[in-house]
UniProtKB/TrEMBL annotation:
It comes from the Bacteria. It comes from Imhoffiella purpurea. This is Thioredoxin. InterPro entries: Thio2_N (IPR049299), Thioredoxin (IPR005746), Thioredoxin-like_sf (IPR036249), Thioredoxin_CS (IPR017937), Thioredoxin_domain (IPR013766). The keyword Disulfide bond applies. The lineage of its organism: Bacteria, Pseudomonadati, Pseudomonadota, Gammaproteobacteria, Chromatiales. GO terms for molecular function: metal ion binding; protein-disulfide reductase activity. Belongs to the thioredoxin family. Residues 23-144 form the Thioredoxin domain. It holds the Pfam family Zn_ribbon_Thio2. CDD domains: TRX_family. Keywords: Disulfide bond, Electron transport, Metal-binding, Redox-active center, Transport. GO terms for cellular component: cytosol.
Length: 144
């Protein structure tokens, strides 16, 4: 890692430059002053998703899900807990494939829930099916 990282604000989507050494110190957005990490997944729409993917220097773990999906709803608390364990080294986001069908189609999501891990704007790993917190964290660390 370099001396600083670009982190996209989950509230206003501004790109912030944060010294790597201060990443764990609860950095706030320079534009809206919201915390850059809240210990919970960020819900993203198509344009916001692309900005986070293109401009973030940290890996992004995406939960492709739908509100009608039982396994998705069962995995939601585990994903929430994984966010508190993986941040600030990994940004966890959720994409509702029902509302954001173009994203589901773009990434060829055939089953939900599906986790996809992105680094440097490119997908590096994918895992379909619901997982518990420990499995999500272990799977993510295993691919980074």
């Amino acid at each position: 890692m370099s001396d600083s990282l670009h982190i996209v604000c989950p509230a206003c989507d501004a790109v912030n430059r944060i010294p790597t050494a201060r990443l764990g110190e609860g950095p706030k957005c320079g534009k809206c002053h919201a915390p850059l990490f809240g210990g919970h997944p960020v819900e993203l729409t198509t344009p916001r998703f692309q900005r986070h993917l293109d401009r973030s220097d940290i890996p992004i773990l995406v939960d492709f899900w739908a509100p009608w999906c039982g396994p998705c709803r069962m995995m939601a608390p585990a994903y929430q807990q994984a966010a508190s364990q993986l941040e600030p080294r990994v940004r966890l986001v959720k994409v509702d494939t029902e509302a954001e069908q173009t994203l589901g189609a773009r990434y060829g999501i055939r089953s939900i829930p599906t986790l996809a891990l992105f680094k440097g704007g490119r997908e590096i790993a994918r895992q379909p099916g619901a997982m518990g917190t420990a499995d999500i964290v272990r799977w993510t660390h295993g691919h980074l």
